[in-house]
Amino acid sequence: MMVNCHAHFWTTKAFLPTMLEINHGHIVTVASSLGLFSTAGVEDYCASKFGVVGFHESLSHELKAAEKDGIKTTLVCPYLVDTGMFRGCRIRKEIEPFLPPLKPDYCVKQAMKAILTDQPMICTPRLMYIVTFMKSILPFEAVVCMYRFLGADKCMYPFIAQRKQATNNNE
């Protein structure tokens, strides 16, 4: 929570007053696709990312209501990024070739393109928009079926098992 959510509060608190004064600036919120939809086993991570997405959306509405059109906002929501943080996370093997972990430099390029074009939100890959939309309109049990089909319902279990083993081995 401190890094994924509270850091955004404190950073915004430090810079927003001057931005409001001059009606100029750009607030970039780095969240995750797991801030838009969740999975089992990483409830704390999802909660922190959902929190920062809510903070970003509320702040964006606040700026619009205050007619501070010179202050832009961009929400960045990448899928699994290949940094090693979630090493072992696996979706269904038949789906993996279509949704491999993203390279960090690709995510940075996509985020920068969104920032430079004042795009309010960027999900990478674009398929994440569809998953988010489906979650919004389908009943919960249908979403569970979709997660099971993709292998997203238990995708973090191998990661969690590796972490437990590393902890037990004092690594």
TrEMBL record:
Keyword Oxidoreductase assigned: yes
Molecular functions (GO terms): oxidoreductase activity
GO biological process terms, semicolon-separated: retinol metabolic process
Pfam families in alphabetical order: adh_short
Keyword Ribonucleoprotein belongs to the record: no
UniProt keyword terms in alphabetical order: Oxidoreductase
SUPFAM superfamilies tied to this protein: NAD(P)-binding Rossmann-fold domains (SSF51735)
Similarity-based family: Belongs to the short-chain dehydrogenases/reductases (SDR) family.
Name of protein: Retinol dehydrogenase 10
